[in-house]
Amino acid sequence: MSGARFHNPGWAGNTGEFDLTEDDVRGAGYAGELPPEGRHPSTAASHPFQLVERDPAAPLFEGPYQERFEKIRSRYPTAMAALLPALNLAQELRGYVSPETMDEVAELLGLGSAYVRGVATFYTMYNKRPVGRFLIQVCTNISCNLCGADEVLAAFLEHTGTELGDTSADGNFTVAEAECLAACGFPTCVQINERYFEDVSVADVPGILARLKSELNGGGDTAPTPE
User: Fold this and answer.
1) Cα distance between residue 222 and residue 43, in whole Å
2) What's the half-sphere exposure (Cβ side, CA atoms, 13 Å) at 108?
3) Section 39-62 average pLDDT
4) CA–CA distance from 14 to each of 74, 95, 202 (Å)?
5) Which domains does the chain have, with CATH numbers?
6) Is the peptide bond before 188 cis (omega within 30 degrees of 0)?
7) Could you tell me the pTM of the whole model?
8) CA distance linking residue 205 with residue 99, whole number of Å
9) Rounded to 5 degrees, what are φ and ψ at 185?
């Protein structure tokens, strides 16, 4: 590499010597579209839970989501053990976990409201208030910070016209800081909903945002090309 810093195409995974597409790396082609009811109970708890479209008024849980909730519950010996995936499912439906949602989950699992609220508020992966269709989390921990994470964060804020933690006027973007996203080998790492974008530089930010907007408009899923 002659001392040059490796630069991947802006999405998770080092393709190395293999000619892999982004779908290959992310596993989208292998997994296919995940049905709301889940597949086998052993995988029902591992679905994404930060979707682009969600309904804050959606019931907990009906139809296929009731089926998935029952699959989740069947995999854990106690209601306490099933709490995190149940909260995940609630967030998938509603986009965030309000105090009222916490109380509903508590009732469904037969747990105390105070216990559920204590667990839900401990974890940063649960949104406690509404967020944009795309939740952009920029890692600013040490590896990313040393490689320009603050500047990448500032670029996302500038190009979305938001303040930290606020949602853009069109409802599309919320930008937040994140602690380590476990991709220290490819700083700066950015998690957008369920996808990782690695090795992100300030120059990549406009392309990533353009891609996300095109996805909302039914455009392709082509990775941005870093400079």
Assistant:
1) 28
2) 22
3) 87
4) 37, 31, 20
5) 41-122 (1.10.10), 134-216 (3.40.30.10)
6) yes
7) 0.83
8) 34
9) -80, -10
Residue 39 has pLDDT above 90, yes or no: no
Q: What is the pLDDT of residue 12?
A: 47
Instruction: List the Cα angle 104/82/94 in 5-degree steps.
Output: 40
pLDDT in tens, 163-178: 999 999 999 999 999 9
3-state secondary structure the chain: CCCCCCCCCCCCCCCCCCCCCHHHHHCHHHHCCCCCCCCCHHHHHHCCCCCCCCCCCCCCCCCHHHHHHHHHHHCCCCCCCCHHHHHHHHHHHHCCCCHHHHHHHHHHHCCCHHHHHHHHHHCCCCCCCCCCCEEEEEECCHHHHHCCHHHHHHHHHHHHCCCCCCECCCCCEEEEEECCCCCCCCCCCEEECCEEECCCCHHHHHHHHHHHHHHHCCCCCCCCCCC
- Which tens digit of pLDDT belongs to each residue from 52-63? 989 999 999 999
d(CA 144, CA 147): 5
Would you tell me the crossing angle of helices 149-160 and 205-216 to the nearest 10 degrees?
40
pLDDT value at residue 185: 85
Whose tokens are 């909260």? That residue is: 87
